[in-house]
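FIELD: query
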Amino acid sequence: MGFFNKIFGQNNKIETQQDLTAFKTDQELIERYGGIVFDKQLDFGDLIGNNNWNINIANGEISFGTNLVFPIQVLGTISHSSQTWLWAWANTKSGLTDKVIQQALELKKYGEDNEINILKNDTFDFSKEDLHLIGTIASGIHNSSAYYICDYGQGAMVVTIKSDQIDKNRKDNHFRIMTVFPQLISQFDMNHNLALTNYLTDKGYNISENGVKLTATKNGDIVTAEFDDQSRLIKLNG
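FIELD: result
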């Protein structure tokens, strides 16, 4: 869990319905977006360093010191005592405006349209570790720069962030794949082959072979992977 603990942490536009119609479960959404979202989180963690966070809900902003101020979308909160998640759109006592919960509302509609309980149910039992599932799905669907988990003691709030300042800090690191992907598949259940294919495609690699063996190339860099007959990763080299 070290990777996640370090980085708890709107294009603010949801992908078109046509792009998303294939994804009917939270697992399929993680397979589609998990790799690239984790990759972005590393760059975001490098940018904010050890700075403390501060949220200004009225302005819809989160800051990490004086020079790092970013717009946010609030997804929801978890209570550490009851271990329950509450979506921002269901928190009628919060006073949050529709503007700052726009993404949460869009995720709710997508969940209703596709019968994905985690997106459509207003509240449910949840662990602190599961917050990364919410952050990853939301960040992926909305092409966010990052997500962040704001732990305030009694609970935690999950927000997504979109900022050119963060996007310009992105690094095209080939060897990061060998770190990101094993940690991704250790955290979530998924089809390893499909998830790696999506991750490499998002990073601009050309997939020239894909079956029990995968070969991907980009600017002279090569990634090779081998899978068992259940698409579980056996070997990853780059």
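FIELD: remark
Confidence is low (pLDDT under 50) at residues 1-18.
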